[in-house]
Automatic annotation (TrEMBL):
Transmembrane segments: none
SUPFAM superfamilies in the cross-refs: Ribbon-helix-helix
Organism of origin: Limimaricola litoreus
UniProt record, GO biological process: regulation of DNA-templated transcription
PANTHER family for the chain: BLL4998 PROTEIN
Superkingdom of this protein's organism: Bacteria
Stated name of the protein: CopG family transcriptional regulator
Amino acid sequence: MPKKERSAETEKITINLGPVDLGRIDLLVQEGFFSNRTDFIRTAIRTQLATQANEIERSIERHRLELGLHDVLRADLEALRDRGEVLHIRVIGLARFAPDIDADLARQTIASLTVLGALQASPAIKSALADRIT
């Protein structure tokens, strides 16, 4: 089945901050506590995620989610199709569809797709699975 591992890839996000909060961050950067705004924001996010680690783990177990990188490969989908089985993909992290997977194969073998994080798939696959993506 698909290989799981932690991904070194990152996703860009945009946040809006008020001028006072932004000024506080800039002051901490100026005073040398952080190298730049991004360093502060990453540290704050990691700290909050660490604080909520137990709740996150319980949710992962409750929802039966895979954590990290989930590669969807053509050979795996073909084997599922040949056995008459379907796949329910539930990922926290990155779900990545191999470029040689066509929309028909995806539609035949993917019953549901939940990705909390990022989905890398061709526009054709995303369109084919649009009614199954939650």
